[in-house]
Design brief:
Helices cover 32% and strands 24% of the residues. By secondary structure, it is of the alpha/beta class. β7 and β8 form a beta hairpin. The longest helix is centred in the N-terminal third of the chain and has 22 residues.
Length: 344
């Protein structure tokens, strides 16, 4: 109903009580619709790591109405690291949480709205797309999924306690801090091989600890590790405790065949036992690969029209802050262009 129609009806309604109640119904309807419309966003970003923030910066800077559902633990994996030295633009490095706060402030500067809630359900079947945080429903013409991935953990109490105090899941990020130290890499896949080799640039000795005799990694990666004199391979061993009060001093290991326990002295432990993409709530909505990663079908658009993806949730290979930010930029631009194309 347009404004003129409403005015016309207002005049008619003043003629009788019945018509006045009709007027209230109309006003109510107009107000209700306005409220509903205020909840319709051009772009809803789910996740607030570098991918989510960057997507929000691009979309809101294009004058779109953007909502970021940042989750109860905002900022993504970079908030669990200390100093980030490989994000371009900060020659002296920047603390991970600060980098995330700066990105958020930049997105807010262009009008992005942030809500600190975990998304519990999505419905991409119709238009607009619906995103739920518990009882609350948000509607978006487009959605950008930037929920990231979580490094798989061993599940030890001591591992949690010493996280970022010698326990890490990113050699590229934290290897530099272990110059001339001894570190252990846990895992038997390509990541473990890559991380072990990379760490020998800094560490004086690297243990590669794997729970089985056979590696999952490709031959070429195994060959490089075996040829590297700084790496000692320990097979059929699994960490059962990370030793140390305020920083890592060693590992308690259990032999997976004999159950015999032993200890080694190390200054750091790097987990390379895989990543788990945060895609549980999307599994019936968009195409995922065999490991649960979101699959971009056309540029950053998923199998569902108007639903885009950015960052580690769709990337099992690079998993860097800068690559996530780059993909966030791509998803932001793709959402802007897709919305433009919908206007006939
Ligand atoms: P992955 O291939 O899934 O390997 C994970 C490794 O961690 C496996 O050896 C596994 O042991 C071990 N593991 C899992 N849970 C464990 C636990 N609780 N305790 C101890 N060990 C545990 O993961 P990824 O190495 O991260 O590789 C992921 C994908 O990225 C792969 O497709 C890989 O090829 C690719 N990638 C490629 C490159 C490259 O080409 N340069 C580099 C990195 C990754 P089991 O073998 O006993 O299951």
């Amino acid at each position: 109903m347009n404004v003129n129609e409403t005015r016309k009806r207002t005049n008619v309604c003043s003629l009788s009580g019945f018509r006045i109640s009709g007027l209230f119904a109309i006003i109510n309807q107009v107000l209700f619709n306005r409220n509903k419309m205020s909840d319709l966003y051009d772009v809803i970003v789910i996740g607030s790591g570098p991918a989510g923030h960057t997507a929000a910066i691009y979309a809101s800077r294009a004058d779109l109405k953007v909502l970021v559902l940042e989750g109860w633990q905002p900022g993504g994996q970079l908030t669990t690291t200390t100093e980030v030295e490989n994000f371009p633009g900060f020659k002296d490095g920047i603390m991970g949480p600060q980098l995330m706060a700066e990105m958020k402030a930049q997105a807010e500067r262009f009008g992005s709205e942030y809500i600190t809630k975990d998304v519990t359900k999505v419905d991409f079947s119709g238009s607009p797309k619906k995103v739920y945080a518990g009882e609350d429903e948000y509607q978006g013409k487009t959605v950008i999924i930037a929920t990231g991935a979580k490094p798989r953990r061993l599940g030890l109490e001591s591992e949690d306690r010493l996280w970022a105090k010698g326990v890490s899941a990113c050699a590229t990020c934290d290897g530099f801090f272990f110059r001339d130290k001894t570190v252990a890499v846990i895992g038997g896949g390509d990541s473990a091989m890559e991380e072990a080799n990379f760490l020998t640039k800094f560490a004086s000795k690297v243990y590669l600890i794997h729970r089985r005799e056979d590696f999952r990694a490709s031959e070429i990666m195994i060959d490089r590790v075996e040829a590297n004199e700084k790496i000692e391979i320990l097979l059929n061993k699994a960490p059962i405790e990370v030793l140390g009060e305020n920083n890592v001093t060693g590992l308690k290991l259990k032999d997976t065949k004999t159950e015999e326990e032993s200890e080694i002295a190390v200054d750091g432990m790097f987990l390379a036992i895989g990543h788990v993409p945060v895609t549980d709530i999307f599994k019936d909505q968009i195409e995922l690969d065999g490991h649960g990663f979101a699959v971009p079908k056309e540029h950053t658009m998923t199998s569902k029209e108007g639903v885009f993806v950015a960052g580690d949730v769709a990337d099992s290979r690079y998993r860097q802050g800068i690559t996530a930010a780059g993909m966030g930029c791509m998803a932001g631009i793709d959402a802007i262009r897709w919305l433009d194309d919908q206007v006939v």
